[in-house]
């Protein structure tokens, strides 16, 4: 039986409206030491066609708002979201998009989400693991979570370099810091109680959960290390993790996927390429591994479920692999 085409939930857009705004503030790198790569919708479509990808949901990569706050952050998000909405509507179903959402204040975040979802008709929201040291488990964001849960809006959560100095050992942040930052973000949801309070959120974490699979057992030992933690409400870690989705970007190795699969079901996996931050060879390798491990049908079916609010158009379908 032929495998279905893939749906890519981790695919980055780098519109000029975004890169130019950051350049005005001296930011020309996605992460320290890595310049923004060349990108256009045409480059994405060429990559998608070469790797049997039916549709890509675009998001803006790190560094996100890069320190922009207040009116500048609000304007940047609005301009980027309007650009994404236009591209999506003109792409005959090949592109969807996650909106940029500034998190300066609860009111700002809520208003930006409503505008992006209801007025611009974007498919979901894209958030970063932390903003100025505040992680997503903060109670300040409860109005945003209430709206996103009620409307069943997919939330794509991408790592950024956290606040403060962290040792890099000469490595790009995406190699070492991003997996750790993703684990921090999941822990923030778990131990703030937000994941229990908003149990029907559609949360997508990147890179096969980053460092989370290897840390989950250690998290379960927290009370043995600090008995005072036993006074907190109990958390069923496995049940909580079972409510999350994980994309497989930068995880094209059977060992990585097996570690994640030991914790979750195939119903929680989504395909992600990380193009163009990962070049065509390595981003395409992710697709090859998903096919070789017979996970393509799962990831595509899961994407249809995640984006049920705006169903994936069959008219955009690429031919099945091998046809």
TrEMBL record:
> Is Glycoprotein set as a keyword in this record?
no
What is the name listed in the Swiss-Prot or TrEMBL entry for this protein?
Amidohydrolase
Reading the lineage from the top rank, the first entry is Bacteria
Any Gene Ontology CC annotation: cytoplasm
* MF (Gene Ontology): carboxy-lyase activity; hydrolase activity
Q: What sequence ranges are listed for the domain Amidohydrolase-related? A: 7-294
- Gene3D superfamilies noted in UniProt: Metal-dependent hydrolases
**Could you mention a single GO BP entry for this protein?**
secondary metabolic process
Q: In which organism is this protein found?
A: Mycobacteroides salmoniphilum
Q: Which UniProt keywords apply?
A: Hydrolase, Lyase
InterPro entries attached to this UniProt entry: ACMSD, Amidohydro-rel, Metal_Hydrolase
> Source organism lineage?
Bacteria, Bacillati, Actinomycetota, Actinomycetes, Mycobacteriales
């Amino acid at each position: 039986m032929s495998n279905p085409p893939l749906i890519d939930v981790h695919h980055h857009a780098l519109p000029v409206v975004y890169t130019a705004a950051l350049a005005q503030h001296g930011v020309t790198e996605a992460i320290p030491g890595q310049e923004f790569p060349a990108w256009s919708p045409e480059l994405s479509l060429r990559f998608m066609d070469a790797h049997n990808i039916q549709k890509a949901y675009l998001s803006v990569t790190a560094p996100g708002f890069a320190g922009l706050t207040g009116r500048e952050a609000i304007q940047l998000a609005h301009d980027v979201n309007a650009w994404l909405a236009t591209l999506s509507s003109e792409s005959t179903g090949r592109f969807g998009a996650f909106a940029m959402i500034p998190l300066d204040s609860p009111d700002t975040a809520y208003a930006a989400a409503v505008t992006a979802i209801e007025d611009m008709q974007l498919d979901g929201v894209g958030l970063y693991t932390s903003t100025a040291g505040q992680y997503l488990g903060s109670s300040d964001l409860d109005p945003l979570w209430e709206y996103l849960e009620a409307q069943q809006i997919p939330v794509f959560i991408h790592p950024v370099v956290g606040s403060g100095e962290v040792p890099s050992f000469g490595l790009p942040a995406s190699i070492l810091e991003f997996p750790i930052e993703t684990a921090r973000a999941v822990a923030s949801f778990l131990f703030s109680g937000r994941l229990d309070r908003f149990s029907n959120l559609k949360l997508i974490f990147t890179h096969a959960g980053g460092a989370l699979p290897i840390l989950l057992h250690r998290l379960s030992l927290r009370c043995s290390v600090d008995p005072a933690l036993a006074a907190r409400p109990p958390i069923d870690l496995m049940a909580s993790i079972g409510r999350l989705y994980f994309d497989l970007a930068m995880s094209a190795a059977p060992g990585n996927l097996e570690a994640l699969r030991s914790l979750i079901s195939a119903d929680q996996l989504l395909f992600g390429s990380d193009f163009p931050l990962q070049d065509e060879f390595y981003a395409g390798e992710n697709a090859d591994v998903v096919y070789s491990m017979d996970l393509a049908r799962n990831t595509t079916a899961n994407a249809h479920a995640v984006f049920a609010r705006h169903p994936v158009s069959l008219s955009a379908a690429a031919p099945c692999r091998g046809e």
